[in-house]
Amino acid sequence: MLAELFQLPAQVGAVLLVVDLVIRVLALLTVPRGRLPTSGLAWLMAIFFLPVVGGLVYLVLGRARLPEERREHQARASERFARGAAELDELVVHDPEPEWLGGLSRLMGTLGASPLLRGGRVEVVLGIEDQIDHLARVVDGARETLHVAFYTLALDDTTRPVLDAVVRARRRGVQVRVLADHLGSLPYPGWEAARRALDEAGVDWRYSLPVQPLRGRYQRPDLRNHRKVVVVDHEVAVVGSMNLIDPGYEKRSNRRKGLRWQDVLVHLEGPAVAAVEAVFAADWRSEAGEPPPLADRPPAPRGDDLVQVVPSGPGLDRQSALRMTTALVSGAQRRVGITTPYFVPDESLLHAVTSAAMSGVEVELFTGEIADKAITTAAQRSYYEALLSAGVRIWLYPAPTVLHAKHITVDDDVVMLGSANMDIRSFELDLELSLVVRGDGPTAAVRDSEEGRREVSHLLTEEEWAARPRRHRVVEDLASLTSALQ
């Protein structure tokens, strides 16, 4: 018996060695499949350094794939876009100017976006007070249907006018449907207040992507619905980067620091509204089991803007947000303005941005001095050296404002606006919604906002960046590796 006890540690060690070897071999066979090289390499490094821990984390977070039922709903929305293009060919723009925009629209159509449609009217709304007032007016105009979806939804002093308008709509007989991302809303005190107000008014609301394993509702927990959508009577849509919450996000620490998020809201009328509502319908059906009623035909033309609605996320599988961003930058002939709180590109986007700058295109990145995600901010800064050396101008918007707007302007023709950041999370893990717009008015409005930011921002220089402490560089490089774990 005593001899057997002495042999036990050796036996345990042999078993652990076999387990370690099996985990490594399985990782080599499974991790890289269908994954970006940077992501695959990052996961392999994590598993090889910590096989058991890394392997367990990979089992929980390693597959950016939504449940099959939800993927089917997204596929039906894409099919609806395709049918609409065939049935309403007179609204589809096949050969837009500039010429590269036609290639982009065809690419996005292949990846599940709506066709590029004429007859849009796009208005860009800036400033939190104007944005809240605008949302409340739009909701108060609802007569039959109101569809609302936000990543973060809360009732507080800032958002009360909008939530009150939602309640009024329901009480006058409007069919109201509300989606709130489960993990995106649940942590905030204002969500509980919003939920009570919705319940008391009889509003039909659901969690988006709930993480409720005891109720049989579970998917990878960091796959989130990051879309922001309001659709009224099938005629008017509002999208953008703004969550429905106080711009300090109801946190004492943010209030002490004076932090306030700055966003962009986009008002849309015209035929493309039907495509926005089809995206909401797919999300609603995934949570409620039944789709909401949709209009038989899209709204009539309301303006001269060309609009393409681009949903993206793990329900589509083909990196449409990343391909869209890369194609927009590559199409620029004179200048590109990129505004985002998080710029963490993969190789293709980094090459597109630096190649544009080195070829003589004026490339500007507008981002904040501060952001709310320390690891993502550090990962972003790891790319500043490559961007600056290529000639990209980096404008740092001053604290305490958190620049949360997301848009890209290309020359003076095209603007992309929506909910998607330019990082791996938005490219791979989050459900997002973007608009690609060809129109003088909206492009000029966003260009004007860039000029306003330029006037108050700090222009980062190569010399200044090279002088930062070495310890910062180490943290940034490590953060860039962890950012690829998706």
Describe the overall structure.
By secondary structure, the chain is α/β, with parallel strands linked by helices. It has 19 helices and 17 strands. The protein has helices at 2-30, 37-49, 51-61, 68-87, 99-110, 128-140, 160-171, 182-185, 189-201, 252-257, 273-288, 320-331, 347-358, 374-381, 384-390, 424-429, 440-456, 462-466, 470-483; strands at 117-126, 145-150, 175-181, 204-208, 229-232, 236-240, 260-262, 264-269, 305-312, 335-339, 362-368, 393-397, 401-403, 407-410, 414-418, 432-438, 458-460. The strands form two sheets. A 15-stranded mixed β-sheet has the order 4-3-2-5-6-8-1-9-16-15-14-10-11-12-17, sandwiched between helices. A two-stranded parallel sheet has the order 7-13. Strand 10, helix 13 (347-358) and strand 11 form a beta-alpha-beta unit. The radius of gyration is 24 Å and the shape is globular.
How are the SSEs ordered, and which strands pair?
Elements: H1 2-30, H2 37-49, H3 51-61, H4 68-87, H5 99-110, E1 117-126, H6 128-140, E2 145-150, H7 160-171, E3 175-181, H8 182-185, H9 189-201, E4 204-208, E5 229-232, E6 236-240, H10 252-257, E7 260-262, E8 264-269, H11 273-288, E9 305-312, H12 320-331, E10 335-339, H13 347-358, E11 362-368, H14 374-381, H15 384-390, E12 393-397, E13 401-403, E14 407-410, E15 414-418, H16 424-429, E16 432-438, H17 440-456, E17 458-460, H18 462-466, H19 470-483
Parallel strand pairs: 2-3, 3-4, 7-13, 10-11, 11-12
Antiparallel strand pairs: 1-8, 1-9, 2-5, 5-6, 6-8, 9-16, 10-14, 12-17, 14-15, 15-16
Helix pairs in contact: 2-3, 4-11, 5-12, 6-7, 7-9, 12-13, 14-19
